[in-house]
Design brief:
Methylamine Dehydrogenase, Chain H; 4-stranded antiparallel β-sheet; about 500 residues; elongated; alpha+beta
Length: about 500
C-alpha cells in the first residue's frame, strides 16, 4: 500500500536522528499497536535556561498601565534635556587599569586668587579693632548694589565710622597700606637708589641709553615735595646718623622783607609724597643736624639766633625739648647760625667757621682765645666749609666769588682753586664714598667734580629747571646718589652714573 513506504521513510529519519546524537535506540523491529499501548507519556518539570522578556507588551496584559506611564515620563525627560544642565553627554570608561606615573619637567606654576571681596558692615570692622559691642553686628556676604545700599542706610554707620577713625590700629593699618602702594609705584627708583638690579623691560628707553653710555651722567629718581613745601626755599639738609633712610630738610624764605615761619620736614625715602614729621619754627631755618649719640634728636638753628632741639620720636611735635638764644657777643658761633654760615666740627676741640669777609676761621673750644688760624683768599662772602671725611687735615670752602678752594690745615694758602660758572656757590659737599669726588651748587646748576679725572672742569653739570634756583646739596650716606634742593621747595634725588668705581679714600 501507499502507507507502507511512508512508514519506512519516517523510521529511517528517526534512526538517522538518534544515530547522529549517539542515542542507544534502534528501531530494527516494526512498531505494532500492542507496543504503543504499553508506552505512557507524562509531563515533566520545565527548566528555564534563558528567559528574555519581550520588548512589546500587550495592552491587555497586567501592568500595561504602569509601563505606559513610565514611557510618557521618559518622553518628557528626553524633550527637556536640551534646555537644562542636568544632562551631560560624556563617555564612560569602566575598565580600570593600573595607574601609571609620568615624570615631566616644566616651569613653576604661580597661583593667584581672583574674585570679588565680600562687603563687611562697619560694625564688623569695629569688632576687628576691638571696639565695645553696643550694636548688633552682621556681615554681608554678597556684593549686590542692593546690599550696598542697605549698609549705607544703616543708622549706626556714622557712629561706627567715627570710632574707626579714632582708632590707633586703624591709622597703623593705613600707614602699612600706604607703604605697600608707594613701594609698588616707586619700585624701580628705590631699587636704583639702593643699587639693586632692575629688569630692562621695567626701565624707560632714556634710562636704558644712560646705562649703555660709559660717560658720567645723572639720573633723576624722584622728588621730595608736598603742598607744605611749595613756594619755600630749601636752606639745609641732613641725614639721620642712626637711620640712613631719614632725611631732614630745612626751609626758609628768600624774601627777607616778608619772612614766614620756618619749616622742617623729615622725609623717608620710601614716601616721597609726604613727610614723616613736620616741625613749625618761629624763624627761618639756617642749619640743622642729627645727634649721633641720642637717636631721634634734631638740632635746628634759626636766623633769629635761636637753637632748638626736637624729639622726633613723638608723633605730634608742637614744641622743642630745648631752646636757647645765642647772643652775637658769644662769638662766631652765633654769627655762623644767624648768617647761614656753615659750621662743621672735625673733632671735640677744633671747628671751622665762615665769615662775610670771605675768611675761614679755625677755632678751638678748649682755649680762652679760641681763634687759632685764619685762611684768607676768597674775595667775597664765604658761604660754606666742609671737612674731608677721608683726611683729617683737608677741607673745602666755597664763596660768592664763584670759586671753590681746597685747603690744608698747616697751609694758609689754598692747595687748589676751582671756578664755578662765574656765579656765587651756595654750598659744597664731599662725597662720603670717594675722596676725590665733591659736589657744588650755584643758582643755575649742579656740578660734580672728580679730581682723579679733571682738575679744570666738573665731570657732570646738571642745569636747573627754568625759573628755579639750586640752593642746597647733600650726598646720600649709603648710596651713589645726591640730593639737590631748590627755590621752589623741592628736593630732587639724582643717581650718579659711571663715576663711582668703588670706595676709595685716597687721591691719585
Amino acid at each position: 500500500t501507499s502507507s507502507q513506504p511512508k512508514k519506512e521513510f519516517v523510521n529511517e529519519e528517526i534512526e538517522e536522528t538518534f544515530s547522529k546524537y549517539d542515542l542507544p535506540i534502534s528501531f530494527q523491529e516494526p512498531v505494532t499497536q500492542a507496543m504503543l499501548k504499553e508506552i505512557l507519556i507524562t509531563d515533566t518539570d520545565c527548566v528555564s535556561l534563558l528567559d528574555i522578556p519581550p520588548n512589546v507588551v500587550s495592552v491587555n496584559s497586567d501592568g500595561a498601565d504602569i509601563i505606559t506611564e513610565r514611557n510618557k515620563q521618559y518622553a518628557e525627560a528626553c524633550g527637556k534635556r536640551f534646555k537644562i544642565d542636568n544632562y551631560v553627554d560624556r563617555a564612560m570608561q569602566t575598565l580600570k587599569r593600573a595607574a601609571k606615573n609620568k615624570c615631566t619637567q616644566m616651569d613653576l606654576m604661580l597661583k593667584t586668587d581672583a574674585g570679588n571681596m565680600p562687603l563687611f558692615h562697619l560694625s564688623a570692622l569695629r569688632e576687628a579693632f576691638c571696639f565695645p559691642q553696643t550694636f548688633d553686628m552682621f556681615v554681608i556676604s554678597s556684593c549686590s548694589l542692593k546690599d550696598v545700599e542697605a549698609v549705607g542706610t544703616s543708622s549706626n554707620t556714622k557712629l561706627d565710622w567715627e570710632l574707626i577713625k579714632t582708632s590707633e590700629k586703624f591709622h597703623y593699618l593705613l600707614v602699612i597700606t600706604e607703604r605697600i602702594i608707594l613701594r609698588s609705584i616707586f619700585h624701580c627708583p628705590l631699587a636704583a637708589y639702593r643699587g639693586l638690579p632692575v629688569k630692562p623691560e621695567e626701565m624707560d628707553q632714556s634710562k636704558r641709553c644712560t646705562e649703555i653710555s660709559c660717560s658720567p651722567a645723572l639720573e633723576c629718581l624722584w622728588v621730595f615735595s608736598c603742598e607744605l613745601t611749595r613756594g619755600r626755599t630749601v636752606s639745609c639738609m641732613a641725614w639721620d646718623k642712626n637711620n640712613p633712610d631719614l632725611l631732614a630738610v630745612g626751609y626758609s624764605e628768600t624774601d627777607s622783607m616778608n619772612e614766614k615761619p620756618g619749616l622742617v620736614c623729615c622725609w623717608c625715602i620710601i614716601n616721597p609724597t609726604w613727610p614723616e614729621r613736620i616741625i613749625y619754627c618761629d624763624g627761618a631755618i639756617t642749619t640743622l643736624d642729627f645727634s649721633a649719640n641720642h637717636p631721634g634728636r634734631l638740632a635746628v638753628g634759626m636766623s633769629d639766633g635761636v637753637i632748638a632741639i626736637y624729639n622726633l620720636q613723638t608723633a605730634d611735635i608742637k614744641a622743642p625739648t630745648f631752646s636757647k638764644y645765642v647772643e652775637e657777643t658769644v662769638g662766631s658761633f652765633a654769627t655762623c647760625i644767624s648768617h647761614k654760615d656753615c659750621l662743621f666740627l672735625q673733632d671735640a676741640n677744633i671747628y671751622l667757621t665762615c665769615t662775610w669777609e670771605g675768611n675761614i676761621q679755625k677755632r678751638s673750644c678748649s682755649r680762652s682765645y679760641d681763634l687759632l688760624e685764619t685762611y684768607s683768599k676768597h674775595s667775597g662772602p664765604a658761604n660754606c666749609v666742609t671737612w674731608c671725611p677721608f683726611h683729617p687735615d683737608v677741607f673745602l670752602s666755597c664763596s660768592s666769588d664763584s670759586t671753590i678752594r681746597l685747603w690744608k690745615q698747616d697751609c694758609k694758602s689754598p692747595m687748589l682753586s676751582f671756578t664755578s660758572n662765574h656765579r656765587a656757590v651756595h654750598e659744597v659737599r664731599w662725597s662720603p664714598r670717594q675722596a676725590a669726588v665733591f659736589g657744588a651748587v650755584n643758582d643755575s646748576q649742579l656740578e660734580i667734580w672728580d679730581l682723579n679725572t679733571n682738575f679744570l672742569n666738573p665731570v657732570i653739570v646738571q642745569r636747573a629747571a627754568p625759573g628755579l634756583k639750586m640752593t642746597s646739596l647733600l650726598f646720600a650716606s649709603r648710596s651713589d646718589c645726591v640730593m639737590v634742593g631748590d627755590s621752589c621747595g623741592q628736593v630732587t634725588v639724582y643717581k650718579l652714573q659711571n663715576i663711582f668705581t668703588g670706595e676709595s679714600s685716597q687721591v691719585k
